[in-house]
């Protein structure tokens, strides 16, 4: 007779695996070195397509369960064909998703049952920078990003706000956006 035991889950998070992973990395810190990758191909005009397929982590090459294909484009008003969000919109989705994942994990670890997590993210860009019309006084990227999170669960306001704050402190995307990150660009021609 086979007995099946289910992993304890809270907020859809397998908390036993979450704590086991944390313990494994604490015992063997080299497991924490990950490299994520993006592969992008120009389609036409401002339309390009990326695939998220593989990455390196836990001391070995890894592959996502399924490849994810993402289309990027500009809207018609910005000389695109609108086959997908702009690259800067993906940044907004990335910080929303990263903060949300952190909230779910941290709440689960603290024994808090979430009932709702939604967010809206806004970023302001002045196109004078991108179009080269500012004599360098206007940056190309976002001038400011604002995240509004709505979080509900079986904990008080202070606890829920604490979960969000810990998620912000642990968010890789927040860190990348809030702190300068070196970007090296290699060009291969031919």
TrEMBL record:
Q: Tell me the Pfam families matching this sequence.
A: OsmC (PF02566)
Domain of life, source organism: Bacteria
Recorded hits in PANTHER family, A to Z, give: HYDROPEROXIDE REDUCTASE
Gene3D superfamilies in alphabetical order: 3.30.300.20
Protein known as = Putative OsmC-like protein
């Amino acid at each position: 007779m086979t007995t099946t035991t289910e992993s304890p889950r809270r907020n859809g998070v397998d908390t036993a695996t979450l704590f086991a992973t944390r313990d494994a990395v604490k015992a063997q810190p080299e497991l924490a070195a990950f490299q994520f990758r993006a592969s992008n191909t120009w389609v036409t005009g401002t339309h390009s397509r990326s695939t998220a397929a593989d990455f390196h982590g836990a001391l070995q090459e890894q592959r996502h369960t399924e490849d994810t294909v993402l289309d990027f484009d500009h809207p018609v008003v910005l000389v695109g064909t609108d086959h997908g969000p702009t690259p800067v919109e993906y940044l907004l989705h990335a910080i929303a998703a990263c903060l949300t994942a952190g909230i779910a994990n941290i709440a689960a670890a603290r024994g808090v049952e979430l009932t709702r997590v939604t967010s809206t993210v806004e970023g302001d860009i002045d196109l004078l920078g991108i179009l080269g019309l500012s004599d360098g006084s206007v940056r190309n990227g976002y001038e400011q990003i604002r995240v509004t999170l709505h979080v509900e669960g079986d904990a008080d306001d202070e606890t829920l706000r604490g979960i969000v704050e810990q998620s912000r402190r642990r968010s890789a995307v927040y860190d990348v956006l809030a702190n300068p990150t070196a970007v090296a660009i290699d060009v291969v021609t031919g």
